Amino acid sequence: MVNAKGTTMTRLALLLAATAAASLSAPAAAQRPSGLKARAVAGVEARAKLAQEINDSVFSFSELGFHEVETSRYLTDVLEKNGFKVERGVAGLPTGWVARWTNGPEGAGAGPVVALGSDIDGIPKASQKPGIPWHEPLVPGAPGHGEGHNSGQAVNIVAALAVKELMEREKIPGTLMLWPGVAEELVAGKAFMVRDGVFNGVDAVLFTHVDNNLETAWGQPSGTGLVSAQYTFTGESAHSAGAPWRGRSALDAVELMNVGWNMRREHLRPEQRSHYVITDGGDQPNVVPQVATVWYYVREQDFDRIARNFAIANEIADGAAKMTGTTVARRIVGTAAPRHFNRPIAEAAWANIKAVGLPKWTADEQAFARLVQANVNAEKREGLAVKLEEMKPPPEKPESGGSDDIGDVSWTVPTITIGYPSNIPELPGHNWSNAIAMATPIAHKGVVAGAKVVAMTTLDLLTKPELRRKAKDYFTNVQTKTQKYVPILSPSDRPALEINSAIMARYKPELSKFYYDPSRYPTYLDQLGIKFPVLEKPKKAE
Predict the structure, then answer these.
(1) 298 partner at 20 to 30 Å CA-CA among 26, 81, 84, 250?
(2) Residues 6+ positions from 284 with CB-CB distance below 8 Å
(3) 411 CA to centre of own chain
(4) Assign residue 110 a region: left if phi > 0, alpha if psi is -120 to 50, beta otherwise?
(5) Which 8-state DSSP code applies to residue 369?
(6) Residue 529 — left, alpha, or beta (φ > 0 → left; ψ -120 to 50 → alpha)?
(7) Which residues, given as ranges, of the chain have pLDDT below 70?
(8) How far is it, in rounded angstroms, from Cα 313 to Cα 332?
(9) According to the model, what pLDDT value does residue 16 have?
(10) Is the CB of residue 358 less than 8 Å from the CB of residue 387?
(11) Are 273 and 225 in contact (CB under 8 A)?
């Protein structure tokens, strides 16, 4: 077997290295759930095939933010066939939707409302054949699920159907509400849903996100919130050689803004994170650019500092416009509040995580994971997780890092995130390599484990008024006692639906040739003719 660097290893060595750890993944018998929760777990297990089909289907669609058309059509069709009422186009998002099912009379007195959410969009240029441990795009240059957002709705739908069955049999009142994170990679969906009242009347949100372990957390985790904004400068065109003095370059203004921000960056807190791309730099060199656009993510760790840094960026943009004789217009694309998760709900979920435990990985799966780690030059090459990571109190000083617009939801209703082990540790993230495992038995097992935890925690919320009371008390008297939600979107802000239009128009015809057909193939790997695990490259024909 040869990895990307040409290092020869034996399949036998990889398998032997994986065998000892593989048996450590299952939960101890004494921890296993009983009663209603045991029946919920059985309901999830009975739907493992459906979970695999949802996971693989969404993987095959490979759609970017605001254009999750096939994904949303497919998911809402599954939900409607199972008795959910679907509202489409919520919050001005064509691919946004809310699916509800209520046991008992709708309206006041119908019991608690538990909302299950997960993201659905992919990553640009992340196309990758699943189950192939080196870079091999399905469609070169196309988007793909290089974070693993194809898996979360499989977790939620299977969990919801298992709980729905129990609610009907045991006459448990309440409402199950499912919803998608649209355009999360643009952090441009959930704040609009919050602003437009999608979560009004919800008692708790269980949000799921792909991970390489089974985990949850409470309080403020490491990471940041952000503002995502486009700055469009408008000047005057002219012949670049014949009469450049008659032009006013919008591109000059963009470059001056970037220089100004980069100079100011030194004098901001180390915890800030900021990045930009020039999305429009002009048309051609011999025409002074009349219009140019730069797109910024400005990140910090609390509401006040986010607003302060955003104000600095706006001042620098105004200065760049003045220096070049241009004008500047600003458009907010999206926002993400710093996250804060609910302690009582997280503690209930953690008890369920311990009862479920990690999947039992095979030696083949561990060998495959180690090969992927080797091929991306990971520092640690220990394969898939075999031990749960303890839920710890939030860090006293959270570190900087990434953002997620689930933060906006978390300041609106008691919320937690549940991570489930459908991916391989030590990968770079937002990368083709993060798509490798996402339509393989590794992802399928992780989805089922996550669905068990979500189903059990949903039952806790539906059947334990004291848990709901504690969750509300924490939200009111701890989380929001001194810090309230600070929305950045204005009533006039609208989703930037044109983003990714050109990319999807270019690649969707090719991607559609590879959509998964579960009526003909047991798994997406079978449809692609990939025999898992692939542990060595085929030899080239002489």
Answers:
(1) 250
(2) none
(3) 18
(4) alpha
(5) H
(6) left
(7) 1-31, 106-109, 540-542
(8) 12
(9) 44
(10) yes
(11) no
